[in-house]
Amino acid sequence: MRKEMYKKFIAIAMSLTVLGIGGTNVSAAKEIKTPVKTTVTKKSTRKPKTHVSHCTMTKSVMYVGPGHAGMYPKTGNWKSSNTWVATVSTTGDRDGGHKVTARGVGKATISCEVLKTSGNWVKGDVYKWIISIKKESVRVPRTQYCYMKVKLKNKKTYLTLNNIGHYPKTTDWKSSNSKIASVSTKESSKGVHKVTYKKKGTVTISCKAANSTGKVVKGDVYKWVITIK
User: Fold this and answer.
1) Count of C-beta atoms within a 10 Å radius of residue 224
2) Which tens digits make up the pLDDT trace of 22-79?
3) Distances (CA, A) of 149 to 176, 197, 220
């Protein structure tokens, strides 16, 4: 009887151990997550650089600018290295182009500076266009001044557009004040015009080139600012 009771006790104890109610209880290990360190690398910005382009003007006007594909950066400090050869507008059009106007034969460098970093442009970038103008007829007419001082006792002088042996045909000779000095509208064989002084003061004698020759372009205006003492 005791043996049977002992066997039943052993059977019950083994069944409880299998079910995890009795015996040693081993708890499951918790998953430990190790934090992952992420390194954020700051995007490096390149240093400003100079971009140089070479071009030849075949017309009196052209447009330049660092824009492309309908995009253009904010620019400033537009200038020309030689305004006698070419000038540039400081204000651009809606496409970022700046107007370059031919003034004479030679070379001029048109330059600007990027004022704000945007896209492929970096603040401080310099853009230069080295422009060559070979034909004098390319430039637009311009006004040139000559300043003179004379004495009233001289009474008269003679003016002409003698440009390295070239005497262009001129028109529209006039005086800004005929009471101080007058100028003859008729010219000699070499385009000489007589200026007659009448009293002390300052007067401007002017004319216009009627054709192109040498460095003179049709439409050029020449002014002599004469001070009579």
Assistant:
1) 20
2) 444 444 445 555 665 655 555 567 899 999 999 999 888 999 998 776 788 889 999 9
3) 16, 12, 23
Please state, in angstroms and as integers, the Cα–Cα distance from residue 204 to each residue in 2, 163, 225, following that order: 147, 20, 4
Cβ count near 191 (within 10 Å): 18
Q: What angle do CA 74, 77, 79 make, to 5 degrees?
A: 125
Instruction: For 169-219, write each residue's pLDDT tens digit.
Output: 889 999 999 999 999 988 776 678 899 999 999 999 999 988 877 778 889
Question: How far is 82 from 108, CA to CA, in rounded Å?
Answer: 5
Phi, psi of 100 (to 5 degrees): -110, 125
Nearest Cα residue to 102 out of 145, 56, 66, 65: 56
Name the DSSP letter for residue 104: S
Contact 149, 229 (CB under 8 A): yes
Q: What is the pTM of this model?
A: 0.56
> How do strand 201-209 and strand 170-175 relate by DSSP bridges?
antiparallel
Contacts of 154 (CB under 8 A, 6+ apart): 197
Q: Classify 214 in phi/psi space as left (phi over 0), alpha (psi -120 to 50) or beta.
A: left
Cα angle, residue 94 at apex, residues 90 and 99 outer, rounded to 5°: 40
